[in-house]
Amino acid sequence: VWGAVLAGTLTTMAVFIPVVFIEGETGQLFGDIAVAVSAAVGLSLIVSILLIPPLAARMLGSAKLETRMAGQAHWFVGEWLGQVVAVINRRTWARLLVVVGMTAASAVGSYWLMPATDYLPAGNKNLVFAFMLTPPGYSIEEFKRMGVVVEEGDPNDATDGIRPFWEAELGTPEAARLAEVEMPVGTDGLRTVRVRPAPMENFFFVSFGGGCFMGCTSKEDTNVSPLTKVLERSSSRLPGVHAFATQFSLFGRGLSGGNSIELEVRGSDYERVLAAAGAVLPRIMAAGFDYPQSAPANFNQGRDEVRLILDPEKAADLGLDVEDVGFIVEACANGAFVGEFNDRGERIDMVILMEDMQGATKEQVVRVPIFAPSGNVVPLASAVTLVQTTAPQQINHIEDMGAVTFTIQPPKGMPLQSAMEKIQAEVIRPLRESGALDASVITALAGNADKLTTTRRALIGDFRGTVRSPAWVGGSVGLTLLAALAAGGVVVAACGIAWGGRSALHAGWMTGAVLVGGVLILNPDLALALIRSRAVLACAITYLLMAALFESFLYPFVIFFSVPLAGIGAFLALRLVHEYSLGDPTMPVQQFDVLTILGFVILLGTVVNNAILVVHQALNYMREGGMDADQAIAESVRTRTRPIAMTALTTVVGMLPLVVMTGAGSELYRGIAAVVAGGMTFSTVFTLLVVPAMFSLAMEWRAAIFTAEPAGSAGLTARQSMGTGGVPAGQPVMQHSPDQG
After folding, report:
1. What percent of the chain has pLDDT over 70?
2. Which residue(s) pair with 370 in the sheet?
3. Which residues pair with 402 in a beta bridge?
4. Residue 661: Cβ within 10 Å count
5. Which of 234, 665, 666, 721 could be bridged to 703 by S-S, CB 3.0 to 4.6 A?
6. Structure pTM?
7. How many whole angstroms separate alpha carbon 589 and alpha carbon 581?
8. DSSP-derived secondary structure letter, 425
9. Residues 6+ away with beta carbon under 8 Å from 307
């Protein structure tokens, strides 16, 4: 089985080559896993070839080995599957029904089960954080009073406040008496369940720069998220304060989680930016999202400000400008800097400070007499006007424009892709259409939303808008490929009827090359998207590698039919885990994130191994055993069912603990494990039916073309020529007896 083992090992390793070069957070995660899996598989090849055979020969002995192999060759499951394959391969319509039916069912099922994509899993980090928006101008004493209210709660209710939660210990009656909270479950969050939070520890309440926040950790690592409701409930007693709490993400920064979205509202006119942000905020909450974190935090709460507006005409008469007025006001307040004095190497700032003006009111400032450059002594009020107004407490800038940024956390169970589409459809687009967003105001989804788009383009590719010609396909990449395949099939059939033999084969290859080349030349964006897609590159590398090992472009094509069959199993397993996690408020929701996409990369390299075993063994039987194609394929299924089942079973059983067990780290790789386990299970069953039927059709088609040559074996039927002549000389096969497994 050297050829099959080598092909399976190299394909498993080859799919990770494009993944290693992905940049960013995803590339760092993928790179470690890719190197680890590739190294492990490579070492297993050396062990399986150099260590296992001598150990088996020494432990079993030649006589025992022959007895065991003879018994294994007649495993009842293999016998039954071999008979089923033989019956299917007798009729062309049955083979077509199996191949087309199962492949189409897998494709449709995968499309139906495929969820929206997410960026990075949130994880189950043991840290809860709550940020509180307070009215401007609160003093330190007021913040201290707020902290006491949060900690102590209602004096008449012994279970209220934070104190009972940090005083209780796990497994004690006090922990059992802690007040329950309502946690949303399901995708829409409309249904709630009552959950008893775990006791907390490391509680903190911090005030800074006119704002405050608090946080804590849980004494039970697997029961963290209910404490968010505890913090929100405790802060609800504070009048005029709005608090929002969240569980920290493993990959997020600050309050932003691994699937948070940043909505930027920016423009050159900051007043219009503030008006637009004020319209966006309630619309976000109306769309079903929690109160978003904004930067600046209190963008819609201005602070009292007095402005001195310079009168241009009066100032010109007095010879004053804005800089002069600013210097005078600064001298009346904190002192105006005029230079430095060097006292034996020590620099001392020199300032001008008006006498008796400390703590002066605005009216006193404008009555200050000034000696104008014109030579007149006049009060400052003769050149300026006092205006009482409000001003932003803080102004942030993005690309040199004033900006307000909203960090939106999607509800539990909502993927990042769905949240992005919801924001565009229910927030930005309606505000644009109603005119609430001025044309000069720019809105953009950034942060993890932008990272998700970039990662999807790198992994899968972005083919939207890449097909512009021919126009009748409507820009659909799938329809373009189907049209090219249909045209190629018509040309091959026409050439086969007209000339037959190699002419049809060559015409088919030439037609395919011309059609593919023409589509890529007419649509350069499509060609660029294909080159950038790591998934396309992984498939291309795997296909070319198998083509080199089998010295044929036909056999890898047959083997690749096992890949779509794994998709429906992978998506079904992912859906089951997703639905289960939605019903448990203490468990992180399993999404179709980029780590889970890595499971499909692993699946691409592993599911083809089963098909390689079937095809490789059938080729051995045809060349060394003198069997025709259908007999060799049925015999290959009969003898290869046991090792295929063993491989699939060990893979699935090895992944199950990651799927069903909870604990630190399991939430990160649960999606990968579910995808690999589900994909291997379905692929194993389907491969033993679809690949033999497809292989039989391919061998019959190949034999029909070559036996149609005038100088060839004209007297043989297509089915007869599929014996030893069906495998060309030089085909890599294993020296193997047809009776051995």
Report:
1. 82
2. 378
3. 267, 397
4. 10
5. 721
6. 0.73
7. 5
8. I
9. 386, 387, 389
